[in-house]
Amino acid sequence: MMLLAIEQGNTNTLFAVHDGKDWIAQWRTATQSTRTGDEYAVWLYQLLAMADLKFEMLDACIISSVVPQSIFNLRNLARRYLKVEPLVIGENVDLGIPVRLEKPSEAGADRLVNAIGAHAVYPGDLIVIDSGTATTFDVIAADGGFEGGVIAPGINLSMEALHAAAAKLPRVAIRRPERAIGRDTVGAMQAGVFWGYIALIEGLIARIKAEWGRPMTVVATGGVASLFHGATAAIDHFDSDLTIRGMLEIHRRNSGSL
């Protein structure tokens, strides 16, 4: 069985193919809530062909999306071109973990998928940091339960806000500066955003651990997480496959295959 996993964030959408043993192909596209199932199909058909794959080889699909208006179009892609009924996180799947929020329905699909992907690999109590449009810090209990967490603006969002709100501040690339004290405007902005985010990460991890009261392992994922690699000792593991691993695990729990 071949599985198409679609993980849609606010900024990017990941399409990944699993052949039952390994992830054999992955592609990203900018998230556009108005893109139709047919438009996705044209784009995906060409990329599949480049990997010597075809629609008819894909016989299962799972979708995780934080953009509700896109789910209709992604479901149409699966139904019309893969001829399968997709599993949609938050709609027709059993996650197999307790969600210990006051309103469990408020937990984002991406955060729950990350929780499952992390619990499948890392033992004990966990903090999962996902750096994307928002930066989330989620607490996963040793039994896999989703306990809640923190949502903060993402690092790119902060940099864009600086540029948009201050007339004299330019739009600059995010990078790790050698010094915390900037010698020019660009350097000062880069230092403020980068080292400010490191301080945010370290500070929130310390507070979460103090509240939790037991040892915790910290796992970071997301497109921006690699920027922080080596910049702080507060993060124990960087795991770029956390989300798609969680989607694969959810598919296994609900289909009994792969």
Automatic annotation (TrEMBL):
The active site is at residue 110. InterPro entries: ATPase_NBD (IPR043129), Type_III_PanK (IPR004619). One of its GO terms (molecular function) is ATP binding. SUPFAM superfamilies: Actin-like ATPase domain. It catalyses: (R)-pantothenate + ATP = (R)-4'-phosphopantothenate + ADP + H(+). Signal peptide: none annotated. Pathway: Cofactor biosynthesis; coenzyme A biosynthesis; CoA from (R)-pantothenate: step 1/5. ATP binds at residues 7-14, 133. This is Type III pantothenate kinase. Belongs to the type III pantothenate kinase family. Its EC number is 2.7.1.33. Substrate binds at residues 108-111, 185. It comes from the Bacteria.
